[in-house]
Structure formats: C-alpha cells, structure tokens
C-alpha cells in the first residue's frame, strides 16, 4: 500500500526520461565498442549507463542532492571493479585499458542523466565517441613516428660480454667510458653466459643520443677480450 500512497506520476515520468536518455546514450557508446569488436560492447555500456542513472535517480528521490552525491561515490568505485574485469595482460602487453575507460565514461553519462542533466549527458556521450573515434588517427600517427631516443624516457642498458679473467678490468672500463660520455651507470650487474660473463650497466639517464651509445658499443666490440657488446632500451612503467 505504501507504493500506492507515494506514487507520483510526475516523478515516474522524470525517472522514465532519465533512464531512457541513459539507455540511448549508453547504447551509442557501446555501439562504437561493438563495431570495433571490444570485450565490453553495446549491451555492457548500455547497462552500465542505465544502472548508474538508476542509482543516482534513486538517491535523488530518497535524499535529494545529498543522496545523489553519496550514490555517485559508490557508482564510481563499483564501475572501477567492473572496468578492471576487461583489462587483460598478455605477456608484457596490457589490453582493455581503453575499453575500461569507456565503461567508466558510460557510467558518468548515465549519472548525468540520472541527476536530471540530459544535456550534459548528451555532451558527455559526444565527447566519449569523439575520443574513441577521432583520436584514433592521431594515435596511429604518433605510433608510426620515428623514435628519437633523446626525446623518449626509457631504461637504457649497455651489455658487454667478456672472459672471466677480464671481468674486473672491463667493469672499470665500462664505468669510465660511460662517465666520459656523461651517461653514468646507475647500476651494474653480471650474468653468466656460455662465452663468458656479461656485464650489464644500467644508465642513470632516461634519455640518450643513440649515436653516442653506438660509439661506446663499437669501442668495446673492438677490444680483444670482448665477445659481444650492445645496448638496448625498454620503456619505463
């Protein structure tokens, strides 16, 4: 009977509009993900937006703006767990970060609708679609650009393989050469190899001039006690 007493057609219509806006906008965001064959597609994003809208709308119905604010905090944390479920790690590669971020944005879109801000919800949806669509050519352009070691931040290593008898002398030479080139070693470790001992010097600097490291590696390759010398870079986490 309480439901009959508290029934309010105007409030019901308001909720209907909020949920419908959230569902439609979540569907638009999800359609783009579905088209690109992502793990979280049309239904996931539509339901996330719809659920966020329903929670915020309910909070507002019960406690006004304060209730909506409290519910928003739980929606944000809950969607964070949901987004983590679509992130996959395959070896050194991580996939699904963009899809997880899209789910998060779908929740914000739904929250706008649930808070009776349909225009802002439409605007948020447009920005999400723009980010996932129009930024793709820019990402491709950046990824295809030649890598300039002096402008990137990475961990650089110089690797020199020598015999057991020359180990200590070679460590000193490596340290001296790197210091002279103004690329001091932050760390130096060794690894046993079939052809001898590999000395691995990790540079302290996050950026280098490739030609200078090439010259250092060439110098060590020319030494009689050295069987192998090279340098490498790996991206920083």
UniProtKB/TrEMBL annotation:
Q: Name one Pfam family in it.
A: MgtC
Query: What is the protein's major site of localization?
Result: membrane
Q: How does it sit in the membrane?
A: Multi-pass membrane protein
Biological process according to GO: methylation
For this protein, the parts annotated as crossing the membrane are: 12-30, 42-59, 71-88
InterPro entries, per database record: MgtC/SapB/SrpB/YhiD_fam, MgtC_SapB_SrpB_YhiD_N
- Cellular compartments annotated: Cell inner membrane; Cell membrane
UniProt domain MgtC/SapB/SrpB/YhiD N-terminal: residue ranges? 19-139
* Source superkingdom: Bacteria
Q: Which GO terms describe its cellular component?
A: plasma membrane
A molecular-function term among this protein's GO annotations: methyltransferase activity
Q: Which UniProt keywords apply?
A: Cell inner membrane, Cell membrane, Membrane, Methyltransferase, Transferase, Transmembrane, Transmembrane helix
User: In which family does this protein belong, per the annotation?
Assistant: Belongs to the MgtC/SapB family.
Q: What is this protein called?
A: Protein MgtC
Q: Which organism is it from?
A: Methylocystis echinoides
Lineage, highest ranks first: Bacteria, Pseudomonadati, Pseudomonadota, Alphaproteobacteria, Hyphomicrobiales
């Amino acid at each position: 009977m309480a439901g009959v007493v508290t029934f309010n057609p105007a409030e019901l219509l308001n909720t209907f509009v909020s949920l419908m806006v959230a569902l439609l906008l979540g569907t638009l965001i999800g359609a783009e993900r579905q088209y690109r064959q992502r793990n979280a597609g049309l239904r996931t994003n539509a339901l996330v937006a719809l659920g966020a809208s329903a929670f915020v709308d309910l909070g507002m119905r019960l406690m006004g703006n304060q209730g909506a604010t409290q519910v928003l905090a739980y929606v944000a944390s809950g969607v964070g767990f949901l987004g983590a479920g679509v992130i996959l790690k395959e070896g050194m590669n991580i996939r699904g970060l963009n899809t997880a971020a899209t789910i998060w944005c779908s929740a914000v879109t739904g929250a706008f609708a649930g808070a009776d801000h349909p225009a802002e919800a439409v605007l948020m949806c447009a920005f999400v679609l723009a980010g996932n669509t129009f930024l793709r050519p820019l990402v491709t352009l950046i990824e295809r650009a030649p890598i300039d070691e002096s402008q990137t931040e990475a961990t650089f290593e110089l690797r020199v393989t020598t015999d057991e008898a020359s180990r200590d002398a070679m460590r000193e030479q490596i340290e001296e050469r790197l210091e002279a080139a103004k690329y001091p070693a932050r760390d130096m470790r060794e690894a046993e190899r079939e052809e001898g001992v590999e000395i691995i010097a990790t540079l302290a600097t996050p950026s280098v001039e490739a030609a200078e490291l090439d010259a250092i590696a060439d110098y060590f390759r020319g030494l009689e006690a050295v069987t192998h010398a090279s340098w490498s870079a790996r991206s920083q986490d």
